[in-house]
Amino acid sequence: MPLTDQHKFGMQLAHMSRGWRAELDRRLAGLNLSQARWLVLLHLARFDEAPTQRELAQSVGVEGPTLARLLDSLETQGLVRRQAVLEDRRAKKILLCPPAKPLIDQIETIANALRAELFVGVDEEELRVCMRVHARILANLEKS
Which positions fall inside the HTH marR-type domain (predicted)? Predict the structure, then answer.
């Protein structure tokens, strides 16, 4: 049975996503952070206010227990700390510690360099069309 363009698109998208993340992980290997941990730091850095553990888990796309283990290791490294929420004793806010900032800056620098390399030869209009297609597919996913 021949593959449809939609099938090829899905396979290509999955391959690109895995490849992009694997290459970024390879370039970040010298920072002594697993892919899961640098991903948590990047998501945490993008919040305007310290998120709760639940909010961070939703942002990263992992289950609570998985995030708890990642936060344990990041806490041991002195990169994050948990703070009790006064209104809800069960909830914890996750705060970045000062040593995390230069590390996040390094992660961003390496990620930006890779992104620039990967988008060589892709013009703005091609990128806008691709983003519209992805947005439409994401919207359809959210309906299902």
Answer: 6-139
